[in-house]
């Protein structure tokens, strides 16, 4: 975006403009953040765009000078192109008008759901939270950090049967002589990082690993224990437990906030499903012949095979 300022100074001006706009107007929605030609981007434009981002992710998304710059540049370009389309009366063509109606329906349907959810009255959930905790106490455990070393036998240069057979052989060697595990890593492992880390995988119970790998690591209890074969999307693993910190069972007080948030989300999801089911459950009146015709409608030579977009016209001036 060529507006003659650096990322840092752009964000500084952006924040100053918020302050100035807020002094004149609490919302500041009409304040012009940036312009290019006849196109202008206001706080209302940015607010509308940010509404598409899940609320929990909005602050993180906007905490980036580069993303802010790209966002404003994209909105300006979109406005410039949209005005070009209007200048060429593309907004008056039947195909584009139908797409605009469809886009409007999509926005309004999402707003209807958002308004319904915002107006929901979540019941008192403390009692249900206690009951859920008592029934599923094991779900509320902070697992201690698990470090393992692993040998990976992949299937890139061998068949799956060959990989499995080799992995079984390496597993037997490791269990026969656990002290030789490091040597087996260097001799057999297909993990290219073995030269740097010796096969060590820290926090192997964390979510950044393959689910099968995590389960294999969590199944090891004693330091030095060798796992049975673990089959992940990367191949076959033999794991050796290096270190395992103790798990911590959360008390109800420690788990309460997480529990109530989860139950509230479940309640809202159930209410939204019930709300939309009232509409989906209404009698459906469809024309079977026309429904069947949709299968061929978009094939070459079909009724709607021609492009919806009209032929190019000379670009109008911005």
Write the layout of secondary structure elements.
Elements: H1 7-24, E1 32-36, E2 39-42, H2 43-50, H3 55-62, H4 65-87, H5 94-118, H6 126-135, E3 141-142, E4 146-153, H7 160-176, H8 181-188, H9 194-197, E5 200-201, H10 211-218, E6 230-232, E7 235-244, E8 248-249, H11 252-280, H12 288-297
Helix pairs in contact: 1-4, 6-11
General description of the model:
This protein is an alpha+beta fold. It has three domains: 7-92, no CATH class; 101-140 and 250-282, no CATH class; 142-249, Chitinase A, domain 3 (Roll). The chain is 53% helix and 11% strand. The chain contains twelve helices and eight strands. The chain has helices at residues 7-24, 43-50, 55-62, 65-87, 94-118, 126-135, 160-176, 181-188, 194-197, 211-218, 252-280, 288-297; strands at residues 32-36, 39-42, 141-142, 146-153, 200-201, 230-232, 235-244, 248-249. The strands form three sheets. The chain has a four-stranded antiparallel beta sheet, with helices on both faces. The protein has a two-stranded antiparallel sheet with strand order 1-2. A two-stranded antiparallel ribbon has the order 3-8. A hairpin with a 2-residue loop joins strand 1 (32-36) and strand 2 (39-42). Helix 1 crosses helix 4 and helix 6 packs across helix 11. The longest helix has 29 residues, at 252-280. The two termini are 17 Å apart.
